[in-house]
Write a structure and sequence with these properties.
By secondary structure, the chain is an all-beta fold. It is built from 1 helix and 45 strands. The chain has 5 domains: 60 residues, no CATH class; 90 residues, no CATH class; 123 residues, no CATH class; 73 residues; 137 residues, no CATH class.
């Protein structure tokens, strides 16, 4: 006998529960309009097409949405309630990448929830110019909303509209529209396809435009190219190198199916740490399955669970591949008041070394530092700056003893300078000195190239270079009871060292190498770095650097 059950949202009735052997024909209840006299489902569907066991004693529950009891003509009708669907004249799916749509209102205080209602009778869509690409990012600020397209940034009024005067000046008025007038910002700039580069602080918003090779700031004075502050070439080259469709592959021939389970394969001698769920399994150049689970069993092997039955024999060409898009990850460091940007050609799980992380400081309108870490995410909370790598959370600036440590690894710091006084004159750089804390060393001191010369081995260029200069502590040694310093020496809190030339002989040179003190050239490049001896991981300040120079007349 048919029975009804009370459903809170839809009017559904429990029509019949059927039990029988596997393969039995599922039937409708007696008297139901679909009953054709043979008591069989009109479409001839067997019970295997319904939820339930396919073998043994089959048991199925049918639920049919219906407003009249038993579906009979003129039978008792229940309240229709909320419709779960609506008849659409044009059922073709549309992908409107440049449009916004909003639902009914939601008010938790009054219990109104119309977030599932999209009335076609109301003007609930707002479209932008499709020539500027798809909408990538929405950001709500006060009573306005900033819309980031691939090639344009606009502002939409919320709960108000703009009426323009005869002179063309907008006058904002209250209105019953949710999304009002859309007003574009000046400048043909967008966010490309990198919404992850967006970050904000106060009224300033930062983002990148990969297609134009620039980093931008949106503030009260409009859009500004902050990549112009000494970094035009750098961002032009590195942003254009980002790829939306990088293909990442792990190849192995030591793969075979697990006996008795066609959905598992074993891998030997392959670094599975660079594999992840969702990768495609390509067997002999043909798609085979997707990875569902990875279970390591050793230093370079493990078991892979896939989503369908496959057979792999040892020695077959098996490739695990996936699209690993590049990204420009941005965040605002509220501790240092810097915009931090990490340009990553490949994700962390693919290659942990392919990245450039740097920061921009509003106080000096310049890019102040590169960082030796590749984050998965970055964010600021309660005046602290955090980043993640895989499942690890790292709090930056937590103490003064690990300022150059990221994710538990001590990496050190370095700064590269260019000495270029009297650039058009030839000179000899005789010494190097600095003011600051102890613990700095010189990795290299090298002059500019003297030009290209053709030799028996091909085209060559020549540079003068010095041997590295050790820090004050690292270069200390005792001989015959007397303390010497082979690197930097200290006098009146200033560190200095002579430059010992280690260059090879250049054409026409008579004296060179260790017999020469100083570096010849018009300008020189010097790299300072922190040592691993003096207060490892601690803060080391560097106030100024210099060199004693002899001008060659």
């Amino acid at each position: 006998m048919a029975a009804t059950i009370e459903i809170s949202y839809f009017n559904s009735f429990w029509l019949k529960s059927v039990s029988g052997s596997a393969g039995a024909v599922a039937v409708w209840p007696q008297g139901y309009p679909y009953n054709t006299g043979t008591n069989a489902l009109p479409l001839g569907v067997v019970n295997n097409d319904f939820p339930g066991p396919a073998t043994g004693g089959a048991s199925f529950n049918w639920f049919v949405e219906e407003s009249r009891i038993r579906g009979g003509y003129n039978n008792v009708q229940t309240d229709l309630g909320v419709k779960a669907y609506i008849v659409e004249d044009e059922t073709i799916q549309q992908h409107r990448f440049n449009s916004l749509i909003y639902s009914g209102i939601y008010n938790s205080r009054t219990g109104i929830n119309q977030t599932n209602q999209f009335s076609v009778a109301k003007d609930i869509t707002k479209s932008l110019d499709p020539a500027y690409g798809s909408i990538q990012k929405l950001f709500s600020e006060d009573t306005n909303m900033t819309i980031f397209q691939e090639s344009k940034v606009s502002r939409a009024l919320i709960d108000k509209d703009a009426v323009y005067t005869a002179e063309g000046s907008p006058v904002q008025t209250t209105s019953n529209v949710v999304i009002g007038q859309i007003q574009p910002y000046l400048g043909e700039f967008g966010i490309s396809r990198n919404p992850e580069s967006f970050a904000y602080y106060g009224f300033q918003k930062y983002f990148t435009d990969k297609d134009r090779g620039v980093v931008l700031r949106l503030s009260r004075d409009g859009i500004t190219e902050i990549s112009n502050y000494g970094m035009v070439d750098y961002f032009r080259d590195n942003l254009s190198a980002l790829n939306d469709n990088n293909l990442w592959q792990v190849q192995s021939t030591s793969v075979e199916s697990v006996p008795g389970d066609a959905r598992q394969i074993t891998i030997l001698g392959t670094d599975i740490s660079k594999m992840f769920t969702g990768m495609q399994v390509i067997v002999d150049s043909n798609f085979a399955a997707y990875i569902l689970k990875i279970t390591p069993t050793g230093s370079s092997g493990g078991t892979i669970t896939v989503d369908r039955d496959i057979v792999v024999t040892n020695g077959q060409d098996v490739i695990f591949e996936s699209v690993a898009p590049s990204k420009a990850l941005g965040a605002y460091d509220v501790h240092n008041k810097n915009y931090v940007l990490s340009l990553q050609n490949t994700p962390q799980y693919v290659d942990g070394n392919n990245y450039n992380t740097l920061s921009f400081d509003e106080l000096i309108n310049g890019w102040v530092s590169f960082y030796a870490y590749k984050p998965s995410q970055m964010f600021s909370v309660m005046n602290n700056f955090y980043s993640t790598q895989y499942s690890n959370l790292w709090k930056h600036y937590v103490s003064s003893t690990n300022v150059t440590s990221f994710y538990g690894v001590e990496l050190g710091s370095n700064i590269t300078f260019v000495f270029n006084m009297d650039s058009s004159k030839n000179k000899v750089f005789q010494t190097v000195n600095y003011e600051g804390d102890s613990g700095w060393q010189v990795d290299y001191f090298i002059s500019d190239a003297t030009g290209y010369d053709f030799t028996s081995s091909g085209w060559e260029q020549f540079n003068d270079s010095s041997q590295p200069v050790l820090s004050y502590i690292a270069g200390t040694y005792v001989e015959n009871g007397i303390t010497y310093h082979s690197g930097f020496n200290r006098k009146e809190n200033k560190y200095y060292a002579n430059l010992i030339n280690t260059s090879t002989a250049q054409p026409g040179e008579v004296v060179f190498g260790g017999q020469v003190s100083g570096i010849k050239g018009r300008f020189a490049t010097v790299k300072f770095s922190t040592d691993t001896t003096t207060n490892p991981g601690g803060a080391k300040e560097l106030w100024s650097v210099g060199s004693k120079v002899n001008i060659i007349r």
